[in-house]
Amino acid sequence: MDFEGKTVVVTGAGSGIGRATARLFATGGANVVIADINKDSGLETKRELDDIGASSIALELDVGNIEDIDEMINKIDETYSGIDVLFNNAGLTRHINFMDIDEGHWDYIHRVNSKGAFFCMQKIAAFMVSNGNGGRIVNTASIAGKGYRRSSNAAYAASKGAVIAMTYSAASSLAEFNINVNAVCPGIVQTDMLSGILSLRSDQTGLKERELKEMMLQEIPLGRANEPEDIANLVVFLSGPGSKNITGQAFNVDGGIIMS
């Protein structure tokens, strides 16, 4: 938990898992770069970090826009002169039935979850290499990318499977530069994203959101959904000294739904 003097980039830091992780890094003394496509949400996270006396900057970032990524890195270099950790977390989904997915849905999801994740990882890794100090990258995948049958949609599952594959590839390519790359694979997490999925499923099925959530919880061996902090705890561990020899792994945080 000692990140004093380290600079940590958290994409999708305006809410949910990203905000919880940004907060945890901040309590460990990190300089936190809050990157989110929603400017107001990012600023709200920054206010939380300001309240605990943390050093942070909030940047508006569309990870699907490569120019945005380059501009973010330039601003970080001007402010903190380096990047030690990337939590590559920005992502999106919606509930779509298999036969209803069209090209627009596919491109919308993969632009952020696959393309955005890759180019954030590639460009920040290049910046880490140029500084010569190594680093840590943690990607947010999902148990959807490992075959979870209640995935919000097939395009989302494919995008998160891609994140897992890219994690393995990047870990192999970046090991010589002392950059560790791992992924976290959340299961059901109590966030606004989950609320949106349940709302759409409720509209489609006629079941109440509470009933749908209970059906999901019944499939979890431990009987409880994740809080965002459950994911944040693993991300911070994978970014710290205790995980120096862990790379190329995709860890489930799901209460036992997927045991692999």
Structure description:
This protein is an alpha/beta fold. The protein has one domain (7-188, 227-253): Rossmann fold, CATH 3.40.50.720. Helix content is 48%, strand content 15%. It has helices spanning 16-27, 39-51, 66-80, 103-131, 154-174, 192-205, 209-217, 228-238, and strands at 7-11, 31-36, 56-60, 85-88, 135-140, 179-186, 250-253. It has a 7-stranded parallel beta sheet, sandwiched between helices. Helix 2 links the parallel strand 2 (31-36) and strand 3. Helix 3 (66-80) runs parallel beside helix 4 and helix 4 packs parallel to helix 5. The model has no long low-confidence stretch (mean pLDDT 93).
Describe how the helices and strands are arranged.
Elements: E1 7-11, H1 16-27, E2 31-36, H2 39-51, E3 56-60, H3 66-80, E4 85-88, H4 103-131, E5 135-140, H5 154-174, E6 179-186, H6 192-205, H7 209-217, H8 228-238, E7 250-253
Helix pairs in contact: 1-8, 3-4, 4-5, 6-7
Ends distance = 27 Å
* Overall body shape: globular
Helical content band: 40-55%
Secondary structure category: alpha/beta
Strand content: 5-15%
Q: State the order of secondary-structure elements, H for helix, E for strand.
A: EHEHEHEHEHEHHHE
**CATH fold-level label:** Rossmann fold
Catalogue the unreliable spans.
Answer: none
Task: Give the number of domains.
Answer: 1
- Strand order, main sheet: write it out: 3-2-1-4-5-6-7
Tally of helical runs: 8
CATH architecture: 3-Layer(aba) Sandwich
Mean of pLDDT: 93
Radius of gyration: 18 Å
CATH class: Alpha Beta
Largest sheet: 7 strands, parallel
